[in-house]
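Entry for iron/sulfur cluster complex. Fields follow.
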Amino acid sequence: MLELRFDPSLCTRCETVDCLMRCQYLGFDLSRALSERDVLVQGGKSQVLEDCVTCYACEEYCPYGGHPFYRIVELQERHGIHPVPPQIEEHQITSLAPREKIQYREMHAPLIDLCTFPMLKESIRGPLFENASLFWGTDVFCNLIYLHFGKVSITKQRLPLIIDNIRKFCLEPNHINELVCYHDECYATFTVFARAYGIEVPFKPVHLYDYILGRLAQMKDRIRPLNITAAYHRNCSNRLIPETHALVDEIFALIGVERVKRRYEDQNALCCGLSLDAQQRTELARDTRRRILEDLQSSGATHCVYNCPMCLFTLQESVRAIGMTPILMPDLCQMALGA
Ligand code: SF4
Ligand code: SF4
């Protein structure tokens, strides 16, 4: 089984324990954070394993690349802690298993990896995605979702096969080497997660926002600035690839969108609540969504922009109810291109 590249000496030398101190859910003081950190380093059953809501944020908070969240998930599994009830966990593991039904299909660049979101295929249209090919399904599904389930062994077991499927059936026979990841989660899997576990990725993953910026630059003359104000809802997967978050403002600047300032954004972003629902933390999920919506409402923005389809599906109704328009980033860009 693949091993996490975890260096305990990084943590034992760390005096600030940002991973636990900055967590928005644990509420530790420094002395408690230091002692729980020691338990985690030693591989013990820290209270963190029970209380973590799997928001992924500590991966971003650690200034040394110490992989605190992957370590937490590893230990949850070792100690038999199930953040999500085992029945739901089992259902997910079975229903999203690779089917080994993938076959070669003629495709061409740009090649868009839609993960397990076939319902979004209608979004791959218009000038932004002109002549794009797409693929999706459980045979190419990144499987990073099991970080929410304390079941990283499933991801580790399936990921090499998934990577090989993409190489063998989608890329190599079509002489393509780049893959545009529609979802942050896939990009994070093929870049940082794979690196943390020493998994080789024989293709170049491209972040959706890098792709969009490239297309907008090519079609600069077609852009009609939207002249709107928008809030941006950051998703959990983006905590694994924080360097891509800056691209939001670059895109907004190109299409005439002013991003409003909010309390729960950037490094203070809150989970949409979907994972909390799955973990049966109903009260916390309700309270988190209440805080998100109050924050959005007081921001004065007309639109709330998402990258993660799951965050959009979870929040869109409530966002509409407070008079705002929920929209995925690619759809917003298509509007600026007149599509
Ligand atoms: S994971 Fe990072 S922030 Fe946390 S104790 Fe280790 S080095 Fe410090
Ligand atoms: S994943 Fe989120 S909830 Fe869990 S310890 Fe890290 S910051 Fe806290």
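NOTE: The chain is about 45% helix and 10% strand.
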